[in-house]
Amino acid sequence: MRSARLILASALFALMAGAALAQPAPRAVGPTIADVGSAYYRFEQVSVTSADGARVYRVQIGVPRKAPGSGGYPVAYLLDGDAAMARIDETLLGQLNAGDPPVIVAVGYQGDRQFDVLARAYDYTPPAQDGAYVVDAAGRPGGGADAFLTLLHDQIAPEVTARVYVDATRSLLWGHSYGGLCVLHAALTRPDAYGRFVSVSPSLWWNYGSVLAEVDPFLSRPHPAALSLTLLVGEEEVAGRGGRTRTNPMWSSVPSGATRDLAQRLHAAGVDVRFAEIPGQGHGGMLSASLIPTLLSFAGVAPAPGDVLS
């Protein structure tokens, strides 16, 4: 029976991959600040392969030219790293340099696109609690977040620390959309892995809101005193304006205000949570609208995004 399920899963994956490739191509990767150079940062690149050999990660490491403090640099891990790097420019790096600039670790995928839609759908989504094979509303296989987060912590982070003097106690994990779901899953299941978790427009609907089932087990255990979670969404996406027509029931499996409700529930339980609906922003625009203030705040040159709940 297990062999039959694996064969079926492989066949479905192949069919869905073909369908995904038939969709409009995501934005191409173009020259970024890592390619043209910066007066404030130098960039290195390494490749890391997933445990199953199916995905190769392009890891771009931005190292401040400014000397670190006595404890080392803070370090920011960015999911959808190719898309993130496309939104980082010399102006932003100069602003970071004015404070305590973090090492930037942008984790993307080998290839010529800012988003590898199949790879991220697998890597950024939690496994089903019953071990079932799960696909998203577009038919893309998921459930690989635990393996990805282990690779990030056990392989990519040591690669960074071997190259750069970082302060592991000042670490941040940022992600948007499926990346935001992955960050939230990480905060709920391995809250001691990073100091700050920034989950932007998390796809709570994935697998009919299964990530929300992780909240009770999280709250039943002591959480690190230094844990900080930021949840950000766009005002337009909450209102349902400007988005795609959503017909699959998975899309509507959680209410539009579910992220706010989650923030309030965690805050009531004593978790350090910040939350905001960013005016005028839809789902896609939240990538840039969150990334830049997150990095500026991490460097200590701007207020932290989101509001402290009361």
Order of helices and strands: HHEEEHHEHHEHEHEHHEHE
Instruction: Determine the mean pLDDT.
Output: 90
- Rg over CA atoms, rounded to whole Å, is 19 Å
Query: For this structure, what is the CATH homologous superfamily?
Result: Alpha/Beta hydrolase fold, catalytic domain
Please count the beta strands (DSSP E, at least 2 residues each): 9
The level of helicity is 25-40%
Q: Order of strands in the sheet with the most strands?
A: 1-2-4-3-5-6-7-8-9
* Class from secondary-structure proportions: alpha/beta
> What CATH first level would be assigned?
Alpha Beta
Low-pLDDT windows of residues: 1-25
Q: What's the CATH topology label?
A: Rossmann fold
Which CATH-level-2 architecture? 3-Layer(aba) Sandwich
| Portion in strands | 15-25%
**Which descriptor suits the 3D outline?**
globular
- Gap from first CA to last CA: 52 Å
Number of helices: 11
**Major β-sheet annotation:** 9 strands, mixed
Number of domains: 1
Keywords: Hydrolase, Signal
Family: Belongs to the esterase D family.
InterPro entries: Esterase-like, Siderophore_Hydrolase_D
Pfam families: Esterase
